[in-house]
Design brief:
The complex is a heterodimer of chains A (284) and B (264).
Chain A (H helix, E strand, L loop, with lengths): L5 H10 L15 H20 L6 H17 L7 H32 L7 H16 L2 H12 L3 H25 L3 H9 L4 H35 L7 H10 L3 H31 L5
Chain B lengths: L13 H18 L10 H17 L7 H33 L7 H15 L3 H12 L3 H26 L3 H8 L4 H32 L10 H10 L3 H29 L1
Helix pairs in contact in B: 2-10, 3-6, 3-8, 3-9, 4-6, 5-6, 6-8, 7-8, 8-10, 9-10
The chains are: A mainly alpha (284), B mainly alpha (264).
Chain lengths: 284, 264
């Protein structure tokens, strides 16, 4: 810097003696962060103080957890492995059907909710519906649906489908609105109809995103399907609650291992496919 | 001049068709009555009136039920606040352990990452179901389940954002002779603080949603009430609870939106 701009240096050097002794400005008091920290602290203390917990139970907790982990995993009851895998397969099926139904319904809806494809009132209504669905936990949706289809895996699949519509619809319209408008205009200028605009303008650039959303939602649904079993619609969650209630810990251990293995396996496969989709295939 | 050379059609055009075929095949298997979940419209066609009746019942929430929902609602919020706090405070050092720039030791890094991958693959309600059997009914198993779930999420997101940050500062720290702990404390921490606060907010939102249903397995909060009204088929009371969850979640969205905008 001094090489290229010598005048500036000499100027500051000349000015320096006349300047009064430098007074460092007072450090700004970080009022806002301080207030935020204080607010969080007050809320935290209030929660800890008011929640109804016998904190003394925490003292025995580490020993308890070690004891139960020992009961679960020291001698897992591998005889139940077959049943555990069958129930897990049923959960995965719920997740799959829920995802497929969800994507079939949400795909057209996300176009109707995207700017430029439908009138504003339709758009607003759909977006509100997506937000409402996303705010309700899937297990509550399942409780409503089971009044129609009973305690069957179908109930679980339908609940997951409804919940998937909320998230897939939102991601879908966001991704459609994010598409480069150039190709769309080109198709419109060439006289393309709306369906042709979607096929040749939106689909080629939005497809990888859509496919990766579907896969990601499938991963979420696999976890959620295990949870839905807790209300009795079948699958691995159902089996887990019964064996926890019987306190058959060696079987619970097997179930947890199966859930972990299957979830991680599906995540790995789906993650690999998603990476291929979004980053492109092998380098040419 | 020869004829115009038309380039060959790109290879791999069969791939989308193959993928569609695989998806259709799996769907067919999962829908079939023998191997799958026996998808059928007969139950729906038989009972749809039942469902419509329930939904009509839900359209008129029983507001007189409100006083009884206040305490569980508060408990849900308390569980979410405590779990977020504990989870994020435990998660911050663990994320530093799990990120390459702040922990160059590949053995401990892989160890922490693997452990948290396993922790993350178990859904929160399954933790709650098992923990209720271990420590008894109440808010405590719910909080513990949420903490497990939070650790997985926070460490993944925060360690990823540490790795996305510029490593120049950290290199300057080690060039100046700082120990790993000093570098992480003085340089990595301020750099990752906004991302950390952001993810903590996100996890708080997830916790409020999750803690509304944890009670279904006996872990305290609104879920206990959901379980009670569902066994009595009081769908008008259920709809009041859903309404409260909706309002809570939407308010929370707005609240964290405001804070996020301040942060950026």
């Amino acid at each position: 810097m001094s090489l290229h701009n010598p005048t500036r240096n000499t100027a500051t050097a000349a000015q320096a003696p006349q300047a009064p002794a430098p007074v460092p400005p007072a450090k700004p008091v970080p009022w806002r962060p301080l207030a935020a920290v204080l607010a969080v602290a007050v809320i935290a203390v209030a929660s800890f103080w008011s929640v109804e917990i016998t904190w003394s139970r925490l003292l025995g907790l580490p020993a308890d957890i070690v004891r139960y982990l020992w009961l679960m995993f020291s001698n897992p009851n591998w005889d139940k492995l077959g049943e555990a895998l069958a129930q897990t397969w049923r959960s995965v099926q719920m997740a799959w059907v829920g995802t497929v139904l969800g994507l079939l319904i949400s795909f057209p809806l996300s176009f109707l909710a995207a700017r430029g494809f439908a009138p504003a009132p339709v758009r607003g209504l759909l977006r509100m519906a997506f937000a409402l669905i996303r705010a309700v936990p899937e297990i509550v949706i399942a409780i409503i649906i089971l009044s129609v289809t009973g305690l069957t895996p179908l109930t679980g699949a339908l609940a997951l489908a409804v919940n998937s519509i909320g998230t897939l619809g939102k991601w879908g319209y966001e991704s459609i609105e994010g598409v480069d408008p150039g190709p769309l205009e080109a198709v419109r200028a060439a006289g393309g109809s709306t369906s042709q605009v979607i096929r040749w303008g939106v689909w080629p650039s939005a497809m990888p995103e859509f496919a990766s959303f579907w896969l990601y939602r499938f991963e979420i649904n696999v976890r959620a399907s295990a949870v839905l079993g807790l209300i009795g619609v079948g699958g691995v969650g159902d089996m887990l609650t019964s064996y926890t209630q019987y306190r058959e810990w060696s079987t619970v251990g097997v179930l947890i291992l199966v859930v972990i293995a299957v979830t991680m396996g599906i995540d790995a496969v789906s993650g690999a496919i998603r990476r291929r989709l979004t980053d492109g295939g092998k380098p040419q | 001049m020869t004829d115009l050379q038309i380039p060959a059609k790109p290879r791999g055009r069969w791939k989308p068709y193959a993928a569609t075929l695989v998806i259709v095949a799996i769907t067919a298997v999962t829908l079939s009555p023998q191997w799958g979940i026996a998808f059928g419209f007969d139950a729906i066609s038989r009972n749809w009136q039942n469902g419509v009746g329930k939904i009509l019942e839900m359209l008129s929430p029983d507001f007189s039920f409100f006083p009884r929902t206040v305490a569980p609602l508060l408990e849900t919020l308390q569980m979410a606040v405590i779990a977020t706090l504990v989870g994020s405070l435990l998660g911050l050092p663990l994320s530093m352990w799990a990120a390459r720039p702040t922990n160059p030791n590949s053995v401990t890094r892989t160890l922490v990452r693997t452990a948290l991958n396993i922790v993350r693959s178990v859904p929160d309600l399954l933790y709650a179901a098992v923990l209720v059997a271990m420590v008894g009914v109440g808010a405590l198993p719910g909080i513990l389940a949420l903490v497990m779930f939070n650790l997985g999420t926070i460490v993944k997101l925060v360690s990823e954002s540490i790795e996305a940050n510029d490593t120049g500062l950290l290199e300057a720290g080690s060039a100046a002779g700082g120990t790993r702990a000093q570098i992480n404390r003085a340089l990595a921490l301020p750099e990752v603080a906004p991302a950390f606060i952001n993810q903590t907010l996100y996890v708080f939102e997830l916790n409020v949603r999750a803690s509304t249903v944890l009670g279904l397995v006996g872990a305290g909060g609104l879920g206990l009430l959901i379980d009670a009204v569902r066994t009595f088929y009081r769908y008008d009371q259920l709809s009041l609870i859903i309404l409260e969850i909706l309002i809570l979640v939407l308010l929370l969205d707005k609240f964290s939106d405001v804070i996020r905008r301040r942060l950026v």
